[in-house]
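Friendly challenge for the regulars: who can give me the structure tokens for this chain first? No prize, just bragging rights.
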Amino acid sequence: MTPFLPSPRNLRWGIVGTGGISRQITADFALVADADVVAVSSRHASSAKDFADTFRIPASFDDYNSMLNADIDAVYIGTPHVTHFELARAALERGRHVLCEKPIGLDAGEVRELAAIAAKSGAFLMEAMWMKFNPLYLRLREMVDAGAIGEIRSVRSAFGAPFPRDDSSRWKRGGSTLLDQGIYPVTLSHMFLGDPSGITAAGIVQENAVDLSQNYTLNYPGGRFAQGASSMVNFLDQSASLSGTGGWITIDTGFWFASRFTVHRFSVETGETTETYETTREGHGYVPMLRAVTAAILNGDVEHPLHSMDDSARIFDTLDEIRRQITISRKAES
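First reply, four minutes later:
Bragging rights claimed.
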């Protein structure tokens, strides 16, 4: 199937999955001028119909392949992450553009395989790393590049919260707090320090290979470093900071969707001085990403420069090494 080509009409989106994230995404699509959500699919016909009725979506499906064959141009995949690779591959092979909730795969190999399929089909593909599109982070990037705190020497971030022990895929093989929560701290480190030259990690892994928590240090040339942690069994401080030779920046709790950061500087003469920057969230916070991706597809682009598939793959290289180390540690202890 030939990928959708640029035209004056709106981009027609299909939503895959009817959970909480899909609901927020669909609500935010209503704030994107050039996008129309025209279809939704779920494993259960009743769920798909209820979702369609709630959001006034014209078509609902209980069969994903049927939706892919309908009159849509692109899909947003919001199902549990263990399903992302197969669902994204099926869409790309039909020439549908894909925006996939993070993590887009289970390892770097899957990410690079999807990138190759997308390149062959000519379809757009991106992992939905909305943090990078947050206006706060665009402003943060500008200030760091302008030398607001000198050279960045370290990054600190964490995302941890206990989740209920239920029957969800989170606790089954393929589940991973590193891929679900930890991807944000690792992405932040990559954004401001790049690919690490060395990694040290420790954590807790269940017998079924599901990682429950981890902490890591990413090392970089010249003594630079990033420290991060993630957990789905206990709380962790969810703020973040960037430290440099001329000061430091703190990002509010919930750093991956935050609307405020503070620049701190210190001198003997003046003591500590601060400047606070704040942005206004649109909808649930996904609107800037959805607007940018829709515009890119309508422009005929196959990737977005703020988060390319190479970016995703290199982040997954780091994630893979963290999981490799904590898995080896568990085997050694057992």
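Confidence is low (pLDDT under 50) at residues 1-7. The longest helix spans residues 309-333. Your move, everyone else.
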